[in-house]
Design a protein that fits this description.
about 35% helix, two-stranded parallel ribbon, single chain, Spore Coat Polysaccharide Biosynthesis Protein SpsA, Chain A, about 240 residues
């Protein structure tokens, strides 16, 4: 992509957070550095009342970037629902969703924008295509992740042409989304989007890095929510 100008009608980057005080400043800095050549842009932090003061730290960072907004949610928890709230309140049709823990390298956003410019309506950052990779995971966690992907692709026909339907890093034109059709259970909102939206999609590779700061939110509860989500989609 040309480094002097990025022709795009506008971009909203949505970053849901919960207890990411150790990572929030770096992730915002890297996002802004990546998208700074886009004239119409915004970074939206959706924080679920983090007890580690992630929201307050984000407010301080906002003083440095005029294109940054904070959505503080109280009484609501959940990655999928926070992403939907961010999408509804975003100013631009092109929306990028990514985690705040730096496992999703912000620099991949530029390649995703290129794919949107080529006419794709959903771009998925994938760990499971050529040049994609997962680093820092145990063999057990890799097996569980790959098993979830294979199960999803086997049971849900709309996901069979997607190598990484469990990705949490993607870009789309939100005008294609009917929010009433989305059931924000758990943390895999992309699977709902793939199932409910008929659009031109493509995957781009990225290297998924294990988090260096903070604690993983993944727990047995999330596995149960994932199975509930699969059941709700196929019945």
């Amino acid at each position: 992509m040309r480094c002097d100008k990025i022709q795009i009608e506008g971009l909203s980057v949505i970053v849901p957070t919960f207890n990411e005080a150790d990572n929030i400043e770096e992730v915002v800095d890297r996002i802004e550095n990546t998208i700074k050549l886009i004239e119409k842009r915004e970074i939206i932090i959706v924080d679920d009342s983090s007890p580690d003061n992630t929201g307050k730290i984000a407010e301080n960072i906002r003083k440095k970037y005029g294109n940054m907004r904070i959505i503080n949610r109280t009484g609501k928890r959940g990655l999928a629902s926070s992403i939907i709230d961010g999408m509804k309140k975003s100013d631009y049709d092109i929306v990028c969703v990514m985690d705040a823990d730096l496992q999703h390298p912000p620099e991949v956003i530029l390649e995703m924008i290129e794919k949107i410019q080529e006419g794709n309506e959903l771009v998925i950052a994938s760990r499971y295509i050529k040049n994609g990779e997962i680093r820092g995971w145990s063999i057990t966690r890799k097996i569980i992740s790959k098993g979830a992907v294979l199960l999803t692709r086997f049971l849900i026909s709309s996901a069979r042409d997607v190598k990484d339907p469990m990705s949490g890093y993607f870009m789309l034109r939100k005008g294609n989304v009917c929010y009433d059709n989305l059931n924000p259970i758990g943390f895999k909102i992309l699977l709902e989007i793939i199932h409910n939206i008929k659009c031109k999609k493509i995957e781009v590779p990225y290297i998924f890095m294990n988090r260096k700061k903070g604690k993983s939110k993944l727990s047995s509860k999330h596995y149960i929510e994932f199975l509930r989500q699969i059941v709700n989609i196929i019945i």
